[in-house]
Amino acid sequence: MEPIIAQDIVRRHRNSRGIDGVSLSVAAGRCLGVLGANGSGKTTLTRLVAGLDRPECGTLSVLGAPSYPRASGLRRCCGVALDQPAHWETLSGRQNLWFFARQYGLSGSTLIRRTDELLAEAGLASQADEPVAAYSFGMRRKLNIIEALVHDPDLLILDEPSAGVDVAFLDTLVQLIRQRCERGKTTWVADNDADWLARAATDVILLSAGRIEAGGTVPELAASIGTRNRIDILLEGSGFDVTPTIAGVEAFSCDKNHIIADVDGDPELPIKLLGWITASGGRVRSMEIRSVTLHEALKRRAERQEAGP
Fold first, then answer.
1. Cα 121 to Cα 22, 71, 115, 124, 146, distances in angstroms
2. Tens-place pLDDT, residues 6-30
3. CB of 261 closer than 8 Å to CB of 255
4. Are 169 and 124 in contact (CB under 8 A)?
5. Phi, psi at residue 71, to the nearest 5°?
6. Which of 162, 188, 229, 266 is most buried, by CB atoms within 10 Å?
7. Distance (Å, rounded) from C-alpha 147 to C-alpha 139?
8. What's the whole-model pTM score?
9. C-alpha distance from residue 78 to each of 25, 73, 140, 186, 205 (Å)
């Protein structure tokens, strides 16, 4: 049985519907990335999977058992790090980590080795014996995440792990998640950083208004965008309503004085597009070129699904 199975789950909030009929499954050895704008339902869905809230409708099973209320034995198989870390402020980082390790059954030399490894991985070894009260927000976030990892859980659940932490730790976390996948462990990550999720996750879904708007594996989504770039152009005035016929320009839109163009990887295309806009009467104020992201690939897939065959 797959470690996470949701069927038509609903969880309402007072002023809105947080999750509205979500169905999904996550297989063993996979990492599901959950993307979405603020208010899309990422945290609500993550709390349901973590067993912190009960679905109002539908069914949700985690590691073969109902997600809520979560049996005590099942809790030891899960590691959860939400977006607001909570610690004993007067205790050191090491003492906080030891507490969680002991709660999950680690002891003796295994406890010492595992906590020392994770403190080093998080770049906290030199501050491990300082009180958490002296830690920055980023240090607290890293401590929170390794507390969820300390017992090598069958299911790891992370909410916004990229928020406030340094790039070196994010690189380390990618490696830790990939190693978990290789060992058949399952990981759930809700985050806003599409570029980082593209490295960490094996599969991704995009939430919007409490529903899954699109989804797919990271390799197939990456293949769908290839080496495409997105060009953002601001014009001096509005009223530009001409569409280019330049080979390699795959999408083009103009809203007032803002042009968005998706182009293939030809390095000459931005220059050609700029020249065409100028020749067509547009006066360019600024231009920015960037790679198309995983989030935009999901949005494109959602738009194609909505348009139908």
1. 35, 31, 10, 8, 9
2. 999 999 887 766 899 999 999 999 9
3. no
4. no
5. -65, 145
6. 188
7. 12
8. 0.81
9. 17, 10, 20, 10, 21
The pairing of strands 258-263 and 284-291 is unpaired
What does DSSP say about strands 57-62 and 4-12: parallel, antiparallel, or unpaired?
antiparallel
- Cα-based torsion angle of the residue sequence 298, 304, 308, 309 in order, rounded to the nearest 10 degrees: -120
Residue-wise over 152-187: b if at least 16 C-beta within 10 A, else e? ebbbbbbbbbbeebeeebbebbbebbeebbeeebbb
Instruction: State how far the Cα of 174 lies from the Cα of 160, in Å rounded to an integer.
Output: 14
Q: Which secondary structure element, helix H or strand E, spans residue 204, and what is its range?
A: strand 203-208
- Token code pair at residue 171: 């690189």
DSSP state of 62: E
> Which parts of the chain fold into alpha helices (H)?
42-49, 72-75, 93-103, 108-121, 137-149, 167-182, 194-200, 218-225, 269-279, 294-307
Residue type, 193: D
The string of pLDDT tens digits covering residues 261-273 is 988 878 788 889 9
| Domains along the chain with CATH numbers | 4-224 (3.40.50.300), 228-291 (3.30.70)
Burial class (CB in 10 A: 0-12, 13-18, 19+), 283: exposed
Alpha carbons 78 and 97: distance in angstroms, whole number: 16
